[in-house]
Write a structure and sequence with these properties.
The complex is a heterotetramer, with two copies of chain A and two copies of chain B. By secondary structure, chain A is mainly alpha-helical. Helices cover about 70% and strands about 0% of the residues of chain A. A two-stranded antiparallel sheet of chain A has the order 1-2. In chain A, α4 packs antiparallel against α5, α5 packs across α6 and α6 packs antiparallel against α7. The longest helix of chain A has 24 residues. Chain B has a six-stranded mixed sheet, with helices on both faces. In chain B, β5, α3 and β6 form a beta-alpha-beta unit. Classes of the chains: A mainly alpha, B alpha/beta. Chains in contact: A-B, B-C, C-D. At the B-C interface, α1, α6, α7, β11 and β14 of B face α1, α6, α7, β11 and β14 of C. The structure holds adenosine-5'-diphosphate (2 copies) and magnesium ion (4 copies). One magnesium ion (MG) sits at the interface of chains C and D. Chains A, D: It holds the Pfam family Dak2.
Chain lengths: ~220, ~325, ~325, ~220
């Protein structure tokens, strides 16, 4: 699979829903260390709503591009999970979807455009800088990797494998940072050594995208 | 989990059903969404005041919707922000053409959503301003006040702004008053036990049988120091110190005081604390214009308390002592302390 | 013991010092004894209303001293009766020549002392009558109502009698009204956790992490049954059953409802309970004229709640909805629900 | 010692004070089973106040009979311990003292008169009947024993030894009864098998009187 077509969004969001259902307790625990333990709950809710919104949008048919269901997913997350990460994730999907309103399917270039808009939306709303130990610290490297892959004309599968690896590394790097935003910020030094919870969500999303494409690919070959 | 509830997921909506059933002459909702709570009464031309935030803090936030205080409140899940859409629905419903002021606490989730709601409102030509409560002195150092949490002291901001709107002030004037009240208010909390979020089902944090945590936030955010539970007077002294220093209270200053229980602490203990506050303020020649002792901003069943002081000038004093009638706060005309 | 206190022995007196410091325009004391609490305001010719009982139940008992409710309160130690002498001092101070009505709960210690105080007052030619609250349906069977404890429902007796005295009724009339309110009121409680008496220093009783005790009293007196904590709706249904049966409520009956937290239960949960009460009453065609949800009669930090209903006739409805202004209870004129 | 003279009241009340200080925890525990755990606290407070009131009354001198300091003890208990047992004990001492206002010292006849008034005061105030599992179930037999001893002209020491034995037995008998009054009443059947807390206080008082007289006697012999 070199492109994610509109109908395949159902499977992708099904996977995202499953991932955040499986990761519910782990994210609760992670957010519990320097936060309020809600991340697992909100992400779980958010991606249930996102999956259902995507299904509804696909069922409605219509000739919209692939961006529309992504926007709808974002709006559903905004409604179902209005926490920090919920709102940022919602903003990400709404902006990313908007960038792909005219696109038919997602190839490497479209994926880079999606994550560019996603990243910029999150930064605009949350005002976090690189190194602040947030989601942005995964989104930045992830985006650079995808833009490089797009420039190099890499197929979607390779681009995602690389991007996931970069995101995993970037996630690991958040351990050395000191939290500057949200609930974790008050823990200051205590947050050092811990992996950022929001960044973990960022990584899980790209990981799910990679797994979706890789698996579909394996199914094909 | 020792709670009266049915399904944890239904907790907030069932609570709201109880609220509407108990206060039908005062509260209702819009957009067919119980979490978009507004006052039944509309006062044409009045600046609209909206708040919003997580559930689990009653009387915060919705309890102060009513005559002389707020017009609407977007209600979130337990310790969760409501959505931007819900805030926007409340905003549309309460706007009387004079614009709307958002007053809410300094939490990232709430900020992100109120910012989104502001954008939505502006697209409909509703003018919206915001004042973000950040009274908790324990949550960041002086000079970094913008990082501080909003806790019980927001009550004074609601009260001052609510009375100002009631007097017919413009949006800019009401905002000026709210901001003045915000800047004049400081709070410090102390926690003795954890709370339980229904959907989580176990204590948010653990704390020893003889420990206290000074400066803890109303969602269990860490405080300044944890140590053995001291006698009430020593606890109060420690809590008052930074408040007094920052407000630069001295001979002849006038304040209103809020002694707030976090949910699991008996009112008797709050009065033991107020006794000491009164002694300390009296010793420094500070006049107490008004005192409130009770539950104003809770953290479910958390045992603990907070102390808020607002330094008054004539205008703030007038507004703070003006009458109010909301489901959770009533003040007769001419209420002194 | 997770309490804000200094010396446990000083707890009640320090609490009272806090009360007087916080409410100097409303409350004061006589006989140079802080435990002889009276209202600052005197209304010439009005029947005096006094109460008394142990501390640890705020707002009970002293919290209802004020305009439209009580005139004085003898304050005991935690869960302890005040002395006859203290009751007598309060009686002397509040008598305006129209006599004094004692309204208090059905506890042996209180009865013995109020009886002694009555004898002392009669020696000084002050006419004293008594109404002894016994609203707790769980504490004895029908036919043995004289053995029942007085709990939160006494709030309605205070409110009705207070409004009657305010209207200028005579001692006999006020007593008639108080007794009518008493007979029309029923309460049922449920406890989830114990309280701690400061001077004792440990929990009064133990109860399992997932247990509740239906019918427990506000000092931890045993209830009707102990069992697994049920969903809120089931708990409410079980509590309402005997109340509804005894009050013979049906289509067209009118009631006021009090949902009372025992000290450690968040208000959110009380509203979840009220939601169910409202459903059940509505289902039986019972009209709700007024609802109070909050803390009215507590047991220190006990987690739990009680439900009180008073069946109203026109007179009781008028008196229950009349305005009041006390440190712990305020009701604006024309307060419906 | 065949009579308790006015000055010896200081020692007797000192002993009572000590007894109720020592028995504090035991009475808390006893009252805790079917009551509110306050009995140890209130009795402790009550007899501290009684001792001090007696000392003050003795220090004031005066030619009053031995009843006066006993009355003062009762009034002090009423003030310091206004619980059920505090108020009943206060009533007992006030009434008992009143009965001895004209007496110079306490011999067997005076002791019987004291306890007659004590008993009647408690019954009048508390309205408990024999068998109701209260203090009255010790006071009744105790009084009968003392009145029999007085009629028989027994010396104080023997009268007290017998009265204490009767009281101890009567106390034991409360175990078989079902509580009808006060906080214990709601426990009904549960109270069966338990010794009544208030009756225990009655027994402790007569026991202290006996010990006081016996020990003084041994000191003399
Ligand atoms: N201003 C911000 N910009 C971007 N990300 C942020 C910001 N503040 C917090 N975050 C991210 O949000 C995560 C916490 O998310 P969440 O649990 O939803 O927060 P909350 O419970 O406080 O609403 C953090 O780990 C961090 O990655
Ligand atoms: N009506 C009564 N008459 C005589 N004794 C009583 C009566 N009611 C209770 N008692 C006695 O009081 C004892 C309890 O005393 P106390 O702990 O002071 O009661 P409370 O704590 O309820 O005020 C009981 O064990 C019983 O002996
Ligand atoms: Mg979180
Ligand atoms: Mg959160
Ligand atoms: Mg007692
Ligand atoms: Mg007792």
């Amino acid at each position: 699979m070199d492109r994610i077509g509109k109908p395949e969004l159902a499977g992708l969001f099904q996977r995202l829903r499953e991932v955040f259902s499986q990761q519910r307790e782990a994210l609760i625990a992670l957010d519990g260390k320097v936060g309020d333990s809600d991340l697992g709950i909100t992400m779980n809710k958010g991606f249930i709503a996102a999956h259902e919104a995507v299904l509804a949008q696909l069922a409605a048919g219509g000739t919209d591009g692939i961006g529309k269901p992504l926007q709808m997913a974002g709006m559903a997350i905004a409604k179902a999970a209005p926490s920090t990460m919920g709102t940022l994730t919602a903003t990400g999907f709404m902006r990313g979807g908007k960038a792909l309103l005219a696109a038919e399917a997602i190839g490497t270039a479209e994926l880079a455009a999606f994550w560019r808009a996603y990243h910029d939306g999150v930064v605009e709303r949350g005002k976090a800088k690189p190194g602040d130990k947030t989601l942005v610290d995964v989104l930045g490297p992830l985006l650079q990797s995808l833009e490089a892959s797009a420039a190099a004309g890499l197929p979607l599968r390779e681009a995602l494998v690389q991007a996931e690896a970069v995101a995993a590394q970037a996630l690991e790097a958040t351990k050395t940072m000191t939290a500057q935003h949200g609930k974790a910020a008050v823990f200051r030094e205590k947050s050092v050594g811990l992996q950022d919870a929001g960044a973990t969500v960022g990584h899980l999303i790209i990981q799910a995208m990679r797994d979706h494409v890789v698996q579909a690919h394996e199914g094909q070959s | 989990m020792k709670k009266f509830l049915n399904e944890p997921e239904a907790f907030v909506d069932e609570m709201l059903e109880g609220i509407y059933a108990a206060h039908p002459q005062q509260l209702t909702y819009v957009a067919d969404d119980k979490r978009c709570l507004v006052s039944v009464a509309r006062q044409p031309g009045k600046v609209g005041l909206a708040t919003g935030g997580g559930s689990g803090h009653l009387p915060l936030f919705l309890g102060y919707v009513g005559r002389g205080m707020l017009d609407g409140c977007a209600v979130g899940g337990v310790f969760q922000s409501p959505s931007a859409q819900q805030m926007f629905e409340v905003t549309k419903a309460i706007d009387q053409g004079a614009g709307v002021l958002y007053i809410y606490g300094n939490y990232t989730g709430d900020i992100l959503n109120f910012d989104m709601a502001t954008e939505l409102a502006e697209m409909e030509n509703i003018r919206v301003l915001s004042v973000v409560g950040n009274d908790d002195v324990a949550s960041s150092v002086q000079g970094e006040e913008h990082k501080r949490r909003g806790v019980a002291g927001i009550f004074f901001v609601y009260k001052a702004a609510g009375a100002a709107a009631e007097e017919g002030m413009s949006l800019d004037e009401v905002t000026r008053v709210a901001d003045k009240a915000r800047l004049a208010t400081r709070t410090m909390g102390v926690a003795l036990s954890s709370c339980i979020v229904p959907e989580v089902g176990h204590a948010t944090f653990s704390i020893g049988e003889r420990e206290m945590e000074i400066g803890m936030g109303i969602h269990g955010e860490p405080g300044i120091r944890r140590g053995p539970l001291l006698p009430a007077d020593a606890v109060v002294d420690e809590m008052l110190k930074p408040i007094l220093a920052e407000l630069q209270l001295g001979q002849g200053s006038e304040v209103a005081v809020l002694v707030n229980g976090l949910g699991g602490t008996p009112q008797e203990e709050l009065y033991v604390m107020y006794r000491r506050i009164h002694q300390v303020l009296g010793g420094q020649g500070v006049q107490v214009a008004q005192v409130h002792v009770g539950e104003f901003a809770t953290a479910m069943e958390m045992a603990g308390a907070s102390i808020s002081l607002i330094k008054l000038d004539d205008e703030l004093k007038r507004l703070i002592t003006a009458p109010a009638d909301t489901p959770f706060f009533r003040q007769h005309p001419q209420a002194g302390r």
